[in-house]
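STRUCTURE REQUEST FORM
Protein name: RING-type E3 ubiquitin transferase
Source organism: Zea mays
Requested output: structure tokens
Priority: standard
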Amino acid sequence: MPLAEHELASAATTSALGVAFGVRLLVALSRSRALKPLAAATSAAPCRSRRCRRPLFLLPLSFVAADHEQIRDKLLSKLKLRQQEGCGSHGEDKLSQRKLSASLKENNFCIPEHVDQFSMSQIRKATRRLSSKNLIGQGGYGPVYKGNLGGMPVAIKILKPRGSQGFPEFLQEMVVLSRLEHPHIVKLIGVCPESCSLVYEHLCNGTLLDRLKQGGLQWEDRIRILTEQRSALVYLHSSRPNAIIHADLKLNNILLDAGDVSRLGDFGTARVVPVKPLEEETIIRRTVPMGTMGYIDPVFLMTGKLTTASDVYAFGVVILQLLTGLDDLNIVEQVRVAVKMHAVNTVLDPSAGTWPKKPTGQLLKLALRCCSWERKRRPAITSKTKWRSLHTLRAMSTSANKTQK
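Status: completed
Returned output:
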């Protein structure tokens, strides 16, 4: 059973250890790293890791008079701080570091010069020792903290050892993002191999989903964001000799800066696929479908075949969400019924302002084609002619913004 502070003092009072031994023990402990066995002085459960299996010392505090209370308080504060940081995390960090180093060597991968490497102490300092006040997100990969490194605001994603997403996703995201440079893709600033952390630029306006729920996002901005995200996908799918499939495009993975300029993030499930000559479609077979329900390509879900058309399906859902404001698993069917009944205006989001009727209707139909169950009917993201309705709306939105100014 863990001991509270008053229980520790009580046990020490009845202890046979003398004052002199108590003083020597206190000094020895304060100079050593053997503070972990005293973690039972806090209210949290003691660590069970192999590294922490040492005898529990009951520190005799009966000798502590008024002039020694400050020393006692500092010691207990250190104990609690170490407990909060986690006794077992050190061993897991070392294991992650070894796994990362081995994987990088195995794949002959060198971290590019433009990607900085940070130490665990720098990460802790940047996040105020992983303070809960700095926590801005939580996912299957692990927690995301805001921080400050060298005066630069950053977002730090830290691998959770037992998360639903793990080391392979960490390595994949690092490898992919370190090689990408696009104005509408989140920039990877650095990595911390010691703690399996990824450091990104911090985008203060959060996710596109949050921004949409807040309201006030006008149709001109929505069209601009769609144009930005299409350009990011064109960049990924046009990469040669290997195309990149994001595989988890959704509103939550589109981040916004202070001016609502968008960046595509979270490349943990992205796949780098060799493109065969004269083949437009790239295919990779997987046994376990990945992604988010509502955005997952149904063909991929049934067959395990992931292609660039899978990203097109998800992008179609994003278009429908931005045009309608709906966040529903049945959004495709709802819009399809409205278009069939020539009632497009009934599904458009009125909070976005007055939508240009004809090109908006055309874009809705294009989004439905993106969400077709037949992959051949989906427009290639790289096709200029297929996306004419989006370009038309973008030109109209730019003109409208100039008129307002």
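Reviewer notes: DSSP finds 13 helices and twelve strands in the chain. Residues 309 and 376 are 9 Å apart (CA to CA).
Form closed.
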